[in-house]
Amino acid sequence: MSTAPQISGITPLTTIDFPDHLACVVYTQGCPLRCGYCQNPHLIPFESGDGAISWGQVLDFLQQRRGLLEAVVFSGGEPTLQPGLRAAMLTAIELGYKVGLHSAGVSARHLAELLGLLDWVGLDVKAPDHLYPQVTGRTHQPGQNRRCLELLLESSTAFECRTTVDWRLLQPDDLLQLAQQLQQQGVQHYALQINHGGHCLDPRLRQPALIDPGQKALLKARLEGIFPHFEWRE
Ligand code: SF4
Which CATH class is domain 7-233? Predict the structure, then answer.
């Protein structure tokens, strides 16, 4: 019997998680990273929590929404590490859905197994290599992330790279360094997502951190000049 993915919850309708599509988001349980700004710390343990729902319940939902929703986005946590994810994606495709993925790019081997099924990927690129441990709380991640990006660049799957920014962890110069590296690799779509505190994993990041408006305008203009498609998400 195949293993079903561990599901921690579902957003039944979203217009912002898969570009230009009406989608739902299915959240999987478990993530190997420890980003201080993580807004979903309850999704980090690989054991299911109180709000867990079964893949069977998700399937019932997907059956009911056929023809109403266009896509299913698997998010987390880190979905690529779920043993049953490929089978779950195949089922969603059989039901007529496009499949999206949000991933922090922690395992190139796991991403490679899914690539042929994916219509769109949002790949987190957390920081320039030397700051990866500071942002993710884990070492040895930049190499895997870079390999995941190479796989996407070699594939025909549409994707964006995005970086969540807390101004206590990353400075404008760090982001420009990262952006130039991504541009040289061939990334076309890039987004910055600003952390505004709240329920962050690291209590020290729960108050918002601000950037000088002039610095912000300058950084935004430079990033718009680097990428054909750039979004600043507040
Ligand atoms: S923000 Fe970091 S720790 Fe939280 S789920 Fe995403 S990759 Fe994992």
Answer: alpha beta
- Cα–Cα distance list, 154 to 53, 116, 157, 173 (Å): 35, 12, 9, 28
Q: Which of 28, 39, 43, 169 best tests ligand 1's pocket when mutated (most atoms within 8 Å of CB)?
A: 43
pLDDT at 2 exceeding the cut of 70: no
Instruction: Collect contacts of 89-92 with beta carbons under 8 A, ≥24 apart.
Output: 89/114, 89/117, 89/118, 90/117, 91/59, 91/62, 92/62
Q: What is the mean pLDDT of residues 146-166?
A: 97
**Cβ atoms 81, 104 nearer than 8 A:** no
Atom of ligand 1 nearest to the CA of 104: 7
40 lines ligand 1 (CB under 6 A): yes
Please give the model's pTM, rounded to 2 decimal places. 0.95
- Please tell me the residue having the least CA distance from ligand 1 atom 2: 35
CA 208 to the chain's CA centroid: 21
Q: Say if CB 82 and CB 6 are below 8 A apart.
A: yes
